[in-house]
Structure prediction request, 192 residues.
Amino acid sequence: MKSFFLIGAFVIAFLNANANYKTIAPNVLWPGILHLSIDTSAKKSNQRDLYQLAVGNKMPPFVSADINGNKIDLEKLKGKIVVFDFWFIGCPPCRYLIPQLDKIADDYKANKDIVFIAISNDKAGALREFLKREVFKYQMIGDGQRLFDYYQIESCPLSLIIDRDGKIVFNTKGLRVASIPDGIKETLEKVK
Prediction:
């Protein structure tokens, strides 16, 4: 969701230029000043649906390294359940979730068929410094802006669960942050 503040005559030109978006929610803040919220992730049907991470889709593969230099190849994780968390250090809801995500990782640490991976768009060095002060028990990929762009991640936190066949079975897009841990636990119980 992107927000814009518009004044006067620019409103008509802006609305015409952005007519390809599915949802435009205007709010009049003051006479002549308009606040627009535009859903940039859901475009009209005349445009190709690019949201790759919808439940039921196969997650497109990637190869990356974690902040310790260990290679992560999604193709080689087939046959395992993979829990992803897209996040960044400056995101308060992301940081709020970390202890709850750690608890889930602890609950399943004996199950070698479930892998927990966090992808942050923060630099690896900043993540290492953060992890000296905070605990996050997921395998950590830093410098992840390339993956954020590849998967069209526009907001955080975003958690995904991929089943043994590489199919997305859980996606938190649109969920309240407080409901994410329960959704992860329920989905893991179904697919494990």
Q: What stands out?
A: The domain at 63-191 is CATH 3.40.30.10 (Glutaredoxin).
